[in-house]
Structure to design on (381 residues):
């Protein structure tokens, strides 16, 4: 495995973070990632020269977020093919790197299928590898387009549900450009509302234990000039009780056939709060996040993360300084920790699912099936 970090001058527009890019220097093709573990302290790039390096980046959350994981997985297959590694082995390693995020497996299969099809046609190794790369680039482009369309549909839904503007939106985890080929999923909707002059406040859950909200969403909100306020996860109930939330917008890592939604742990409690307080709970995700092979929420495999993420606190500054995974202990030595990466929200708590094809509401198994059946040439009403 060969990987390294280099400084990134970050010359992109505020909403267009260079989260992931393909490069072909003289020494060979590489996949370059913005290292999210170092944000917001430093904007560094992680250069992956092989699949093991990319798998490590995925598992360490240097790159994270369902849509962009699919893109990274597809590029990973192309990387293996172009560097002469075993494509099937690489695909298996990548697809199993994070089990809950369905987009990862989708991207891997897409590029691997393009590679196999080229081989079956008698293509040379270089041509087959380029076929995988083309598939990855096309997925990257489509995801950017999907992001823009989700923003339009999501803003239209907000205007329908909450006429008059002045939206106060609560979000959880990170769903912006850092997770997408474009401007994101749920965050893209908030950004569209801000640009339209309709966003009064973006409430940002800190998202324990890895603080994707405070480190990443607040970072993106600040870069884009959104009016935002950070809160601890357990302050959300107080915010609802005070009548300060008009809608909850989150992303998804997997949507089951019945409409159950797996997302960053802490999403389900927000759905319960929203239901009690009669606040719309909206999931924004591309159709590639829907998995009809997963029948319901109980069938979703929930990734369990290491306990030290709960029992220790590691600052981005210490990560950037090379302190490794060790951090400041906040629990007695030997404390066991329960640390699921995701929880599952049942469909009856979801007001709507917004995809690039439109908004699905109410959320039912039949509606999800229709969404998938028509997802290539469909408008959901």
């Amino acid at each position: 495995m060969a990987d390294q970090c280099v400084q990134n001058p970050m010359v992109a527009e505020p909403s267009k973070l260079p989260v992931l890019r393909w490069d072909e220097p003289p020494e060979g093709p590489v996949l370059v990632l913005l290292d999210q573990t170092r944000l917001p302290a430093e904007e560094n790039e992680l250069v992956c020269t092989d699949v093991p390096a990319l798998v490590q980046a995925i598992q360490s959350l240097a790159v994270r977020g369902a849509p962009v994981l699919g893109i990274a997985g597809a590029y990973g297959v192309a990387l293996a093919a172009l560097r002469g590694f075993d494509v099937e082995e690489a695909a298996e390693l990548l697809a199993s790197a994070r089990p809950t995020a369905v987009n990862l497996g989708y991207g891997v299969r897409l590029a691997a299928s393009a590679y196999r099809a080229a081989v079956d046609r008698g293509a040379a190794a270089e041509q087959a590898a380029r076929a995988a790369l083309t598939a990855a680039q096309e997925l990257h482009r489509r995801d950017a387009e999907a992001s823009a369309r989700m923003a339009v549909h999501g803003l239209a839904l907000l205007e329908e549900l909450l006429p008059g503007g002045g939206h106060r939106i609560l979000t959880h985890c990170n769903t912006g450009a850092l997770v997408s080929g474009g401007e994101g999923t749920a965050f893209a909707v908030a950004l569209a509302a801000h640009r339209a002059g309709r966003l009064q406040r973006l409430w940002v859950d800190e998202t324990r234990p890895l603080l994707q909200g405070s480190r990443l969403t607040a970072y993106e909100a600040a870069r884009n000039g959104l009016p935002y306020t950070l809160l601890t996860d357990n302050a959300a109930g107080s915010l609802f009780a005070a009548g300060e939330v008009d809608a909850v917008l989150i992303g998804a890592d997997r949507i089951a056939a019945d409409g159950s939604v797996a997302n960053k742990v802490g999403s389900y409690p927000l759905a319960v709060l929203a239901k009690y307080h009669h606040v719309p709970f909206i999931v924004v995700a591309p159709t590639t996040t829907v998995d009809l092979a997963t029948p319901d929420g109980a069938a979703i495999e929930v990734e369990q993360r290491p306990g030290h993420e709960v029992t220790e606190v590691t600052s981005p500054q210490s990560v950037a300084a090379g302190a490794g995974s060790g951090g400041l202990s906040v629990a007695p030595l030997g404390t066991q920790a329960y640390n699921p990466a995701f929880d599952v929200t049942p469909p009856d708590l979801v007001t709507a699912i917004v995809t690039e094809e439109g908004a699905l509401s109410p959320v039912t198994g039949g509606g999800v099936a229709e969404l998938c059946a028509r997802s290539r040439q469909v408008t959901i009403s």
User: Anything to note?
Assistant: The longest helix spans residues 125-161. Confidence is low (pLDDT under 50) at residues 1-12, 319-324, 377-381. The chain has twelve helices and 17 strands.
